[in-house]
Amino acid sequence: MLSYIARRVGASLLQLLGLALLAFTLIHLVPGNPVRTMLGGRASAQEVHQVSEALGLTKPLVNQFWSFLTNLITGHFGQSFTFGQSIGSLISERLLPSAALICYGTIVALVLGVPLAIIGALRSGRPIDHGIRVLTTVSFAMPTFWSGLVLALIFALKLNWLPVSGYTPGFVGIVRSLTLPAIALGLSLLAVIVRTLRSSIRYVLSLEYVEAAEARGFSTPRIMVKHVLRNAVMPTATVLAVNVGFLIGGTVVLEQVFQIPGLGTLLFQAVQQRDYLLVETLAVLAGSIVVSLNLLTDIMQVVVDPRVRMGGKSV
Amino acid sequence: MSSVTIAAPRARNLLRLFRNWELTLGLTILGLMVVSGLLAPWLAPYPPNQIDILHSLQAPSFSHIMGTDFVGRDVFSRVLYGLRIDIFVVAVITYAGLVVGVVVGTVAGYFGGWLDAIIGRVADTVVSFPFIVLVLAVVAIVGPGLKGVAIGIVIVGWALYSRLSRSEMLAMREQPFMLATRALGYSNSRAIFRHALPNLVRSSLVYSTVDVVVNMLVLAGMSYLGLGQQAPGADLGSIIASGQSYLLTAWWITTIPGAVLVLFGIGVSMIGDGITQGDLSMATM
User: By residue range, what is the domain housing residue B241?
Assistant: First the structure.
């Protein structure tokens, strides 16, 4: 088990290195002088040179990558030129709204998705199961920004229940201002959750020990909770971890729809201003969140499920 | 995974009919949308960029079945042209990614060794980037426009097909017909392209029905952000964005093009579900 975990950690570290390298390479593929593009046409040659020097762009590429990497690890992300602020403080300012939106969206998806998956699995092949599948197909096809706008039209503009856009700090403020974007985000995740969970529940239901529990006369709710769902939790956790990148992407767009000052808005502004260092840092940050969450669920899986542990050993 | 066990043959036939029905409906929806996109110049009642301030923000009526936008452009005509460009771009980028990914993955799986290790690591890295974040990074470099979005999507898109094809190739490598290609002294390229590829491309084609929907949503999202199709060109995402300020007074500008996007996604998903068992687990590889 330990060797499996060590291998997974090693692979993840390699992946993180790859992320940094990819982001670094992409930014250096910018045609022409990135600093000139960033500062705009009117910057003098001297200004361009100064900024290049400050960014360390005059050093050899290998040195540049090395300092980019060490700065990332030590948390010294450097200075954002367009915001005139250190990238670290920019990120910490903007982190909470995005994190709250992702968590809230996941909760919405689970609250809607788990019951639907259970019903679909128990009544598989029946009309209600097909109905649920149609529902997930529709929710999968909806662009998050569009469902966000439709929700805003109905619940904010017409019914006046919730604010149209903006972000208010504090628990109540967060719940009020993030409810509509979180529903839009949750709907986009719903299909994957319902379909994965439904098929893993159906698989567990077909196993002999469930039949044995039925034979002993346990009630359906008891079998579901004590025997079936427990085995369906890990696949769902894995699916959530794999799709966190998808959620981050959804947040980037939704923050624009609802004007939420989060990391997505920051990334969008950085892209528009062509603040390459900021784009680079945010991209690596987002990638490392995905990598570490995947690592975490993989390790959790080994700890929780002895079968995976054994499987990991023999591979 | 688990097979469907149904006692009565009649129920099974009904289910099969439902499946076929799903596939047929999906193909019909997609076919209609492709045809109306292709025929947009003939079907559109107005030029897509024709401004008519006197008739701006008009609700859907017989002369403008989807209403008009804030400068009086006919939303229906713009949706047709938008559909045309969006379907074209999505088809090109999805299947460009598929071709690259399938070839790379098959070669990696066939030869194994260091080549496989390198390709595998690169694919892992690309996949672990949040899709939209990477596309945004590429747009930051290439500049706004469909080109940057398309490049970004292909950079990510090939990786999933590569993983899928690699794992299929690994299983296929030991099968008798592949061993026979070696025994018969066929060249590697003949073994890969004539014998392995045709057998393993199917799963990638099935997965592409999910990918088309995802790519369409990402493309629309980038255009919504103003980083895709540039004004005055029409594209479903940018039409939706242009209606956002008029959400309360002119709901049709935003909601109808979005509903068209949803319909497209439903059509493609139905085709995918019709072919497979309706399992999204492949999407989460």
Answer: 21-283
Two structure tokens written together for B215: 């790519």
Q: What is the pLDDT of residue A32?
A: 62
What per-residue string of b and e applies to B60-85 under the rule 16 or more CB within 10 Å gives b? eeeebebbbbbebbbbbbbbbbbbbb
Query: How many CB atoms are closer than 10 A to CB B198?
Result: 9
pLDDT for res A34: 67
Q: Pick the residue with more confidence: B1 or B177?
A: B177
**Three-state SS across chain A?**
CHHHHHHHHHHHHHHHHHHHHHHHHHHHCCCCCHHHHHHCCCCCHHHHHHHHHHHCCCCCHHHHHHHHHHHHHHCCCCEECCCCEEHHHHHHHHHHHHHHHHHHHHHHHHHHHHHHHHHHHHCCCCHHHHHHHHHHHHHHHCCHHHHHHHHHHHHHHHCCCCCCCCCCCCHHHHHHHHHHHHHHHHHHHHHHHHHHHHHHHHHHHCCHHHHHHHHCCCCHHHHHHHHHHHHHHHHHHHHHHHCHHHHHHHHHHHHHHCCCCCHHHHHHHHHHHCCHHHHHHHHHHHHHHHHHHHHHHHHHHHHHCHHHHHHHHHC
Q: In this complex, which of A130, A196, A286 lies closest to B130 when CB atoms are compared?
A: A286
- Specify the number of domains making up chain B: 1
Q: Which two tokens stand for residue B269?
A: 């998903």
Q: Which residue has the higher pLDDT, B67 or B208?
A: B208
Looking at the domain assignment, is residue B120 inside a domain? yes
Say how many C-beta atoms besides its own lie within 10 A of residue A190's C-beta.
23
**pLDDT score, position B283:** 39
The pTM assigned to this predicted structure is: 0.86
Is B9 a member of any domain?
Answer: no
Q: Which residues pair with A79 in a beta bridge?
A: A86
Determine, yes or no, domain membership for B7.
no
pLDDT value at residue B35: 93
The answer on pLDDT for B111 being more than 80 is yes
Residue B56, domain member (yes or no): yes
Q: Which of residues 71-100 of B touch A (CB under 8 A)?
A: none
CA distance B64 to B18: 36
The Cα A250–Cα A287 span in angstroms is 15
Q: How far is A197 from chain B (nearest CA, A)?
A: 10
B269 part of contact set with chain A, CB < 8 Å: yes
- Specify the CATH number for the domain of residue B49: 1.10.3720.10
Touching check for B191 and chain A: CB below 8 Å? no
Q: What is the pLDDT of residues B158-216, one digit of tens each?
A: 999 999 999 888 888 888 888 888 888 888 888 888 888 888 888 899 889 989 999 99
Q: Does A33 touch chain B (CB under 8 A)?
A: no
Averages of pLDDT over each 10 residues, chain A, 315 residues: 83 87 79 67 75 73 81 80 82 89 93 91 86 91 92 86 80 85 93 89 84 82 80 81 86 91 90 83 89 87 70 43
Residue B222's nearest CA partner among A193, A235, A143 is A143
Give the DSSP H or E segment for B161.
helix B146-173
ipTM of the prediction: 0.84
Q: Where does residue B139 rank: exposed (0-12), middle (13-18), buried (19+ CB within 10 A)?
A: buried
Q: What is the helix (H) or strand (E) element at residue B242, kind and residue range? A: helix B236-243
